[in-house]
Amino acid sequence: xxxxxxxxxxxxxxxxxxxxxxxxxxxxxxxxxxxxxxxxxxxxxxxxxxxxxxxxxxxxxxxxxxxxxxxxxxxxxxxxxxxxxxxxxxxxxxxxxxxxxxxxxxxxxxxxxxxxxxxxxxxxxxxxxxxxxxxxxxxxxxxxxxxxxxxxxxxxxxxxxxxxxxxxxxxxxxxxxxxxxxxxxxxxxxxxxxxxxxxxxxxxxxxxxxxxxxxxxxxxxxxxxxxxxxxxxxxxxxxxxxxxxxxxxxxxxxxxxxxxxxxxxxxxxxxxxxxxxxxxxxxxxxxxxxxxxxxxxxxxxxxxxxxxxxxxxxxxxxxxxxxxxxxxxxxxxxxxxxxxxxxxxxxxxxxxxxxxxxxxxxxxxxxxxxxxxxxxxxxxxxxxxxxxxxxxxxxxxxxxxxxxxxxxxxxxxxxxxxxxxxxxxxxxxxxxxxxxxxxxxxxxxxxxxxxxxxxxxxxxxxxxxxxxxxxxxxxxxxxxxxxxxxxxxxxx
Length: 492
Description:
Elements: H1 12-22, E1 26-28, E2 35-37, H2 39-58, E3 62-63, E4 69-71, H3 72-75, H4 79-85, E5 91-94, E6 97-99, E7 106-108, E8 113-120, H5 125-135, E9 144-153, E10 167-177, H6 180-201, E11 206-210, E12 222-229, E13 235-245, H7 247-251, E14 255-257, E15 263-265, E16 267-274, H8 276-285, E17 302-307, H9 311-330, E18 335-337, H10 345-354, E19 359-364, H11 365-370, E20 372-377, E21 383-387, H12 391-416, E22 418-420, H13 424-431, E23 438-442, H14 447-457, E24 460-465, E25 473-474, E26 481-482, E27 485-489
Parallel strand pairs: 3-9, 17-18, 17-19, 22-23
Antiparallel strand pairs: 1-2, 4-8, 5-8, 6-7, 9-10, 10-16, 11-12, 11-24, 12-13, 13-16, 14-15, 19-20, 20-21, 23-27, 24-27, 25-26
Helix pairs in contact: 2-6
């Protein structure tokens, strides 16, 4: 194995970067700001994708696909939308290359300039709503519940693997409804789906909230979000759900005849999560020795490491190990038998620990004689000798215990680093301290106040918590009247 990872307590950022690389999750690509997601990292994303896809379909949504290239003119139809994404758009201007007559390379063919330029999809509202115009004629066509799995491009100036890359993978839901009430209900329903997914599948506790006006999605009436706390006390936005009102329907003339034969614009939502959830998963649970993965999302839930170097030991141990592998696989457990005899057991232990496999089973000649298995859990490092008979039930219960334990641990960290403050000095002490965290404080509702706090403390308003009742108070910075507290934090 290579040298140890940097310690989180000494250089959290470098720890994250090194862990992503050494655990074989992703690497930087020759394309500026983009990444190559390696098989192990993509397997984690696939687990997320499969779970979410099932949850979407259980709530009546179906999948479709829309073009990667969007006519540039589409973005100008919704003013807030174009203002929000203009600085991040990559634009296709030509459709052909040709050999450079003055050299051996290639150049853009000046005669192949497009009549209309295309924007590489930063998000799909515009092209989807132009399409919905043909799909929706009456109230009988509603609700229209569509999800898309796709890649998008937003030109990122400071890329970081998984967290911020120019191109990333995501899902984006786009729904159309006959009434505002139905659209708001959909917006909040999908927020609940994301919350359930994050907490029950990823073991990451989140806070539901609504974004302040200056932080909402471009073109939305309201933006709801789930915010998660990472181990360094910073926030990470883990998902968003937007009530779009009739803004995009009006921009693209999407109308329907209601039950009374009156024509009206439809009501819209959009919602999405992306591969940044892989980054969230790493930073929420992992330690100085590598990944710590919840069993629900781990590509392998169990790894079996046989102790058999000599031929006679292999003849005795490997058949038992393979039988155990089949037994676990038939029970629906994702298992890996590491029978590569070119690597020593200690190397394998460190390797699978780095990759975050929740449970490790060691099996040697003595274990076979004693009819036992040595079983270790990745999260707490506890090891136990377990009788082979009944070991399946033990492993199933252990996986459940690890999943629950990781959520409980993340909740405890958030509780310990969640602060209610009533003075700007208190706020400074928290946000400029070693651990950071979430600060619950009064805000006067003005954008310039939020911008000044961001400039001075590098902290932003993450959300206005949904479960937080109104409370009279004074703004943490200006002293102006405030009706409720909001969450401030430094964020990724």
